[in-house]
């Protein structure tokens, strides 16, 4: 099952991000990049957005990744990822993460030129894999250093 989870994270590049803030819950369709070990998800957002304000207010997030574009309806897998989002600030990490986004998401190159961007690291705390309409598996992830 962990292999399925890892595959879902690595083979997809879009997720739905759920945040919570003073105005309540908010969802956003997001491009993402996974870390090489699949234990972290990287997001990028302009700082003048509701999702950024929500991330600053409440770092607990939920992401959903699924196979609906590739699988027949009865075989769709959906992965709910829970985690903690923190804004990245280390210059070397920002440079490498920006390069990954430009490589994996060339349609975002214009966005990457903005100076008012926040790169967010989501440390995965737990996942729930829905495998078809009835099989669900929950995995608590070990704490990250």
UniProtKB/TrEMBL annotation:
| Pyridoxamine 5'-phosphate oxidase N-terminal domain span | 3-128
* One cellular-component annotation, GO: cytosol
- Which SUPFAM superfamilies does the protein's record reference? FMN-binding split barrel
GO MF entry, a single one: coenzyme F420 binding
Q: Which InterPro entries match?
A: F420H2_bilvrd_red/Heme_oxyg, Pyridox_Oxase_N, Split_barrel_FMN-bd
Q: Which UniProt keywords apply?
A: Oxidoreductase
Which PANTHER family does this one have?
Answer: HEME OXYGENASE HI_0854-RELATED
Descriptive protein name: Pyridoxamine 5'-phosphate oxidase family protein
- Give the lineage: Bacteria, Pseudomonadati, Thermodesulfobacteriota, Desulfobacteria, Desulfobacterales
């Amino acid at each position: 099952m962990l292999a399925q989870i890892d595959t879902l994270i690595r083979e997809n590049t879009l997720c739905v991000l759920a945040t919570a803030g003073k105005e309540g819950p908010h969802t956003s369709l997001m491009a993402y990049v996974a870390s090489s070990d699949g234990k972290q998800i990287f997001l990028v957002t302009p700082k003048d957005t509701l999702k950024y304000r929500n991330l600053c207010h409440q770092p607990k997030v939920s992401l959903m990744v699924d196979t609906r574009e590739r699988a027949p309806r009865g075989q769709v897998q959906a992965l709910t990822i829970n985690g903690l989002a923190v804004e990245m600030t280390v210059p070397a990490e920002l440079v490498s993460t920006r390069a990954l986004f430009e490589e994996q998401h060339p349609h975002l190159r214009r966005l990457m030129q903005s100076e008012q961007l926040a790169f967010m690291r989501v440390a995965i705390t737990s996942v729930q894999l829905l495998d078809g309409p009835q099989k669900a598996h929950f995995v608590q992830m070990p704490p990250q250093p």
